[in-house]
Design a protein that fits this description.
By secondary structure, the protein is an alpha+beta fold. It has helices at 6-35, 41-79, 90-93, 96-100, 114-118, 124-127, 294-305, and strands at residues 141-142, 146-148, 150-151, 157-158, 163-165, 171-178, 185-192, 195-203, 210-216, 226-234, 237-247. The chain has 2 domains: 6-79; 87-253, Immunoglobulin-like, CATH 2.60.40.2550. The chain crosses the membrane at residues 6-30, 51-72.
């Protein structure tokens, strides 16, 4: 499927107008030169008027192309946003970070800090990992971030939401973009309650406009309940922020492998060697008392010895 962004459309229109201006000018001059050679007055005047008309049109096309190049794209963005997921804008209304700031009202001298939250800055540890030498385009645009556990083959979110129950697993933050400079540095920062927990930074290798995402797949026990914030930067310039919430307790099922240690009692198999008591049949030689039957024979002999006349 062919995807053309607004910037490419404007450039194409300007090129068409420039080519049309050149061709119209050539045709107009051609009409003037040939019109002077026509001997008939009426036909000569008609050809000359047509030639001047084409020249005037070519002159008007030049400033029209200049106006289109400089003002058409901003005018289009007034009526059309680059994101087809504009219906997902309720994610913008979920700005609990501003409602959390009352904790700062405990120290009135710090109440000026909301100006910092309105324009986030790139942390030095992330900025130091920049690898790009291509300057970013300050006119780059990003749509609101939409969060989902899965995306389709076109990088569109599947079952987007603003709240996720533990265990979350992998999470995607999808967006659309325009006017990106290929090779410029971009960064995505994931915060939990103001604490940086994950970030991605690399040169931009996709096109100037289209769809993209940032993702995070930590171990389950790293998904802590609370409010998460994802910030996107182009170079050091902040572009957009998205929010979502994780519900439920921290999943600790990964600790369950410890019961595998309980298999160590299988080492207690040596007690099964208590089968040695089966060797107690050695006491069966006590059958030798059966030899005590000999005294019964002595009883039979006594009557024969006691015969008296």
């Amino acid at each position: 499927m062919l995807k053309i962004d607004i910037q490419s459309t404007v450039f194409t229109a300007v090129i068409i107008m420039g080519v049309a201006a050149i061709l119209t000018l050539i045709f107009g001059i051609n009409h003037l030169t040939k019109g002077r050679k026509i001997p008939f007055f009426g036909k000569r005047q008609a050809r000359m008027r047509r030639g001047w008309r084409l020249i005037i049109i070519s002159i008007l096309l030049i400033p029209l192309a200049w106006v289109t190049l400089n003002y058409a794209e901003p005018m289009v963005y007034v009526f059309i946003t680059p994101s087809p997921t504009i219906t997902q804008t309720p994610t913008v209304t979920v700005t609990p970070s501003i409602t959390i700031t009352p904790s700062i009202t405990l120290t009135p001298t710090i109440t000026d800090t909301p100006s910092i939250t309105s324009t986030p800055s790139l942390p030095p540890e992330v900025e130091s990992k920049s690898e790009s030498e291509v300057p970013p385009n300050p006119d780059a645009l990003f749509s609101p971030i939409v969060f989902a556990r899965r995306v389709d083959e076109d990088w569109q979110p599947i079952d987007p939401a603003e709240e996720f129950d533990n265990p979350v697993g992998q999470l995607f933050g999808t967006f659309s973009y325009n006017n990106m400079a290929v090779g410029s540095q971009w960064s995505a920062l994931w915060y939990w309650e103001g604490e940086l927990v994950h970030f991605q930074t690399r040169p931009w290798l996709d096109g100037t406009g289209g769809y993209g995402y940032t993702n995070w797949e930590p171990p389950d026990q790293h998904w802590r309940p609370g409010t998460y914030e994802v910030q996107i930067f182009v170079g050091t310039q902040w572009k957009v922020t998205g929010y979502f919430t994780v519900l439920g307790e921290i999943v600790t099922s990964t600790v369950t492998p410890s019961p595998t240690w309980t298999q160590s009692p299988t080492a207690s198999l040596p007690p099964t060697q208590t089968d040695t008591p089966t060797r107690t049949p050695t006491s069966t030689p006590t059958v030798t008392p059966s030899q005590t039957r000999w005294p019964t024979a002595t009883n039979t002999m006594t009557p024969t010895m006691t015969r008296r006349p």
